[in-house]
Amino acid sequence: MSVSVLSPTRALGGVSGLLQVASLLGLVLLLLKAAQLYLHRQWLLKALQQFPSPPSHWLYGHMQEFQEETELRPLLKRVEKYPSACARWLWGTKALVLVYDPDYMKVVLGRSDPKSHDSYRLLIPWIGNGLLLLERQTWFQHRRMLTPAFHYDILKPYVGLMADSVRVMLDKWEELVSLDSHLEVLGHVSLMTLETIMKCAFSH
C-alpha cells in the first residue's frame, strides 16, 4: 500500500495560483465597474448640459457648497444666477435637477415617468405607500377614484377656510418675529396644515 504525500511547496503553489486568479478576477470586476460609472457619468453630463450649474468636483460634486448649517442661502444664490432650473451634483454619478420655474414645473408634473425609488422611499415611513408613491396601473386606479373629490367646484368653498388658517399663522409669525429675529417655521406650518384639514374635513 502506497501513500502519496503532497509536498508543502506544491500545496502553496496551488493556493498561490488560486489567489492570483481571484485577484485578477477582482481587478477585472473593478475595472468593469469603473467603466460603467464613467459611462453613466458621461451620459448624465450630456443629459444635464441644458441645465447650467456651477462647476462641480468630479467625485463629490457640489457637496462642499452646501456644507453650511442651512442650505437656503446657497440655494437662493443659485435661483438668482439660474432663474429656471439648475443641476446639483451630489457625487460623481448622482445628480438632481432643481426646478423652480412654474412653466418648467407644469411640464415635469404633467409627465407620467416612473418615480425615483431612491427619493420616494424615504417618504414611505412618513406618509405611507399612498397615491404619491404608487405607480402605473395601481396609481391610475386610485387616482380615478379620488379625482371626483378634488373637483374645482367641490374645493372652491374651502379656499376661504385655508386662507383663514394661513392668516392666523402669519399673524402669529408677526408677533414672534417682533420678539426674535429667528423663526423656525416647520412646526407652525404643520399646525396650520392640521387646522386646515380639521376645518375642511370635519368642519371644526
Please supply descriptive tags for the structure shown above.
204 residues, mainly alpha, 3 domains, 2 strands, 59% helix, membrane
Please give a structural write-up.
There is one protein chain. This protein has 204 residues and is mainly α. The chain has 3 domains: 16-49; 51-111, no CATH class; 151-202, no CATH class. It contains 9 helices and 2 strands; from the N terminus they run ααββααααααα. The chain has a two-stranded antiparallel sheet. The termini are far apart.
Question: Helices, strands, pairings?
Answer:
Elements: H1 8-47, H2 72-81, E1 85-91, E2 94-99, H3 102-109, H4 117-120, H5 124-127, H6 136-146, H7 152-155, H8 158-179, H9 186-202
Antiparallel strand pairs: 1-2
Helix pairs in contact: 8-9
Q: Can I get a quick summary?
A:
The protein is 59% helix and 6% strand. It has helices at residues 8-47, 72-81, 102-109, 117-120, 124-127, 136-146, 152-155, 158-179, 186-202, and strands at 85-91, 94-99. The mean pLDDT is 79.
This entry's quaternary arrangement is single chain
Principal-axes geometry comes out as elongated
Our count of helices gives: 9
- The H-and-E topology, N to C, reads as HHEEHHHHHHH
**Class of secondary structure makeup:** mainly alpha
Radius of gyration from the CA trace? Answer: 28 Å
**Average pLDDT value?**
79
Biggest sheet, open or closed, and with what strands and sense? Answer: 2 strands, antiparallel
Percent of sequence in beta strands: 5-15%
Number of domains: 3
The end-to-end span amounts to 97 Å
Could you name the ranges where pLDDT drops below 50 across 5 or more consecutive residues? none
How many beta-strand segments?
2
The helicity comes to 55-70%
Q: Taking strands numbered 1, 2, ... along the chain, how are they ordered across the largest sheet?
A: 1-2
Subcellular location: Endoplasmic reticulum membrane
GO biological process, one term: lipid metabolic process
Family: Belongs to the cytochrome P450 family.
Keywords: Endoplasmic reticulum, Membrane, Monooxygenase, Oxidoreductase, Transmembrane, Transmembrane helix
